[in-house]
Amino acid sequence: MSIKKRGDVWHIDIQAPDGSRVRRSTGTTDKRKALEYHDKLKAELWEIAKLNKKPQRLFEEAVILFLKDSEHQARFDYKQAHAEYFLKIFSGRTLSSITGEELTNSIPELHLKTKKPIANGTKNRYRSTILRVFSLSHKMGWIDAVPYIPRCGEPKVRVKWITKEKASILIQNLKLNWMKDVCFFALSTGARMSEIFTLTWHNVDFVNRIATVTNENAKSGKARALLLNNDAIELLRKLRFKNNCEYVFSRSTNKRVYDIDRRDFKRACTLSGIENFHFHDLRHTWASWHVQAGTPLYTLKNLGGWETLEMVNKYAHLNADHMLGFANNVTFTAQKPFNGTLSKASNG
User: Fold this and answer.
1) How far apart, in whole angstroms, are the C-alpha atoms of residue 332 and residue 176?
2) Which residue among the candidates 283, 284, 290, 301 is catalytic per the annotation?
């Protein structure tokens, strides 16, 4: 029997029936439990070799699979943090032994650092991470089914936008010049904050009037073209030789910008008489202006880089002009003049 202690934890070294070796930590300092783990694993290896039993996969293996799958996607740092959180709970467990109830109960209720209650939207992001872990495992044939985890209810989609006049006043009230540029670009292109601050000059094509959002910086994980209108082109030409930074938006010190100056933005909103307004609402504003100008929703979907048409339907109510032409397709007075009085319905 090959079981050795390394530090305080017991480790095993087993030769499987097919000649391969399995070396791993038992995750325990209790020798009795380590021996039980050793014997159970050895029996499973025999059943796999002799009875064609499906091998049991550890939760850690599924997490590694998940991280490899998402390493080139947007917000990889968030996914790493989620993976570390779940590893603390399920490390050492086999995938098949983890139930949907356990996964549901593992979704955090409090922020890991501040210990304040977290919103349902944040809980759903944890849910998406752990579901993806098990979904990939299912695709690999490691488990027979993906456990069910109920989704937390979220408030209805919030669409906040401002008029062009208000937007102009907002930009004028910003104190920092680089913040004026960032907000102007957001209103001109509908770009997300992460797309703006990761944009490099290498990915700006002045000839074809396109800025490329690379797959590692796109929310969907897929590269997309950010079309540049006249306002955006004029701004970029002004900034092109302003500094030596490889990133389009930088401070006067040629240092890259990672986030907006929230104090400046909040102060400008207050001075402009704009309440309950966030930076992402500039994207909502850009989309709202497009719909009001008659841009078809499908075209807007592609311009804004949304994954589905459903995501842009929230702007549809801002312009019903495209439907007015169909309003008279069905009328009950079309066959004869309407004298303003409906006849009484006949009895029987």
Assistant:
1) 60
2) 283
